[in-house]
Design a protein that fits this description.
There is one protein chain. This protein has about 180 residues and is mainly β. Helix content is about 10%, strand content about 30%. The chain has a domain at about 70-180. Strands 1, 2, 4, 5, 7 and 8 form a six-stranded antiparallel beta sheet that branches. A three-stranded antiparallel beta sheet has the order 6-3-9, with no helix packed on it. The protein is elongated and about 90 Å long. The N and C termini lie far apart (about 85 Å).
């Protein structure tokens, strides 16, 4: 037997061994003939997608100076943005009525004033600060579907020589995004 005949025989065996076989179960979807359309439908559900992202989980008050006691302490708070597929509101409220820590535990949350500015504007020239509340959440930003421009929270804290003694001061804040 020649090499060519052996090769041809091996190729035939391989073709038969690897030939596709018909499935035992027929397909149950649409069947189309030449010139007609088979309809295939894509379907799914898109949920409400609203995501608030903060630049950081905290803002450091740092060591407060005498000048900040005299004039108030201006702080650059976190930058934030929202990605949404519908309208939304972002609200801000203090999680407690007073600061905690080793300092003045009766220091009111309302001693913190806030304002939201466009990120590019920064906090240095910010005006229109509002006292922080723990009982009523303030709407600080609203938007529609898409990616919001980055915003920044600015804080101005009033310090009092008579009541705000040495120690640590902590006040958790709640930023909440809702899709009304």
């Amino acid at each position: 037997m020649s090499r060519h005949a052996l090769f041809a025989g091996a190729a035939l065996v391989a073709a038969v061994a690897f030939a596709p076989t018909a499935s035992a179960q027929p397909l149950s979807g649409p069947s189309c003939t030449v010139g007609t359309n088979c309809v295939h439908t894509l379907s799914g559900t898109v949920p409400v997608l609203v995501n608030l992202t903060l630049e950081s989980p905290s803002t450091a008050i740092g060591t407060v100076t005498a000048q900040q006691f005299d004039d108030g302490q201006l702080l650059d708070g976190p930058r934030f943005e929202v990605r949404a597929n519908r309208g939304y509101n972002v609200t801000l409220a203090a999680a407690a009525g007073t600061f905690s820590g080793g300092g003045n535990n009766s220091k009111a949350a309302s001693d913190v004033r806030w304002v939201r500015v466009a990120d590019a504007a920064g906090c240095a020239g910010a005006t229109g600060f509002t006292a922080l509340s723990n009982s009523t959440a303030a709407t600080i930003f609203s938007g529609g579907a898409g990616l919001s421009p980055r915003q920044r929270l600015c804080f101005n804290i009033d310090w009092n020589y008579e009541t705000d003694g040495p120690g640590n001061y902590t006040l958790p804040l709640n930023l909440t995004v809702t899709a009304p």
